[in-house]
Design a protein that fits this description.
319 residues, alpha/beta, TIM Barrel, ten-stranded mixed sheet, two-stranded antiparallel sheet, 12 strands, globular, disordered C terminus, binds iron/sulfur cluster
């Protein structure tokens, strides 16, 4: 892996663009949560696919797809970041999270399972918590069954975060936002109930709330046990695709949680509700969902490393 460029703001998030194989590019991120120092919380976000075949309407990773990364290629992103900060591979961070959530739907790549199995043998990271965020694609039963076993063996007792990104309780809107065949709510609910054990973190149901979304607390409570699932509301990030598809966010950093009625009704149904706005600066950096690779590949994602270099400064920090 050759890291070609870096951008961001080092006390919030840094985003790296790398050539993983000749002509194949990925991006990955490290971020902090100010005012917490790195030793308290450090989050890495790594890519698992070259592009993504799902093509969600609010995400720039979709629209092109060139296959899965190998476990070694996923590890090379992690290794790069860990060795930069902790060359001895002893990650002394209280909350050290790796999200398999940058480019690619993780459930479409079994190598993610290999990484999860091998991680505890590679690094000394007592605060480690993996985080898998998925749209629950159709046909991914093998992945999820294995994931359940791996979680039980290695990450039980609150050391694993699983998130289903569902975005709407209206199937028509959900299909528009996530345009592939996927598990329905009863299947997600049934799996979640099997996955969750006392002491685990509750499973997150994520809604990136757009002006088109509809979230019905009644529908949710018909399927999802509030003892097993919590609800997380996030903004729709201003990605290229969200803007192209005219999908606006109904919450933002300026108007945190501006749907108090929804939050109240969800809480009345017994759900824990998290509102996660993120750092407004991250939108400038493009480090949440704005896919850097896509941005620099507009029109032709098979550009050479040289043409990348031409467009990006090799090291660029917005400080
Ligand atoms: S949100 Fe996830 S599943 Fe959807 S296109 Fe982006 S990477 Fe793929």
């Amino acid at each position: 892996m050759r890291v070609l460029a870096k951008t961001g703001k080092k006390d919030i998030a840094s985003l790296y663009l790398a050539e993983m194989r000749p002509g194949k590019f990925v991006e990955f991120v490290e971020s902090l949560q100010p005012p917490l120092p790195k030793k308290k919380k450090w989050v890495l976000i790594v890519s698992t696919l070259f592009g993504c075949p799902v093509g969600c309407a609010i995400c720039d990773a979709g629209g092109w797809y060139e296959g899965p990364l190998t476990a070694d290629e996923i590890f090379s992103q992690i290794d790069y970041l860990i060795s930069s900060s902790f060359p001895e591979r002893v990650v002394s961070v209280e909350k050290f999270k790796i999200q398999f959530a940058r480019m690619g739907e993780p459930a479409l790549n079994p190598a993610v399972l290999e990484v999860l199995k091998e991680f505890p043998h590679r690094y000394n990271a007592p605060g480690f918590m993996p985080s898998v965020s998925t749209i629950a694609p159709h046909g991914s039963e093998f992945f999820f069954n294995e994931l359940l076993e791996i979680k039980r063996e290695n990450y039980s007792g609150g050391n694993f975060q699983l998130q289903f990104s569902i975005h709407s309780t209206d199937p028509r809107v959900r299909d528009k936002l996530i345009p592939v065949k996927k598990w329905d709510f009863s299947k997600i609910a049934c799996y979640g109930t099997k996955f969750y054990r006392s002491g685990d973190r509750k499973i997150t149901l994520n809604f990136a709330l757009s002006d088109d979304s509809s979230v019905s607390p009644d529908v949710l409570s018909r399927y999802f046990d509030p003892g097993v699932f919590l609800v997380k509301i996030t903004p729709v990030n201003p990605t290229i695709n969200a803007q192209k598809n005219r999908i606006g966010s109904i919450i933002s950093g300026d108007t945190p949680g501006n749907d108090p009625e929804l939050v109240k009704s969800l809480r009345a149904k017994g759900y824990e509700v998290l509102i996660s706005i993120g750092e407004p600066e991250e939108n400038k950096i493009g480090s949440n969902c704005g896919q850097y690779v896509r941005k620099f590949l507009t029109g032709d994602y098979k550009m050479t490393a040289e043409s990348y270099r031409y467009k990006m400064e090799p090291v660029h920090l917005i400080d």
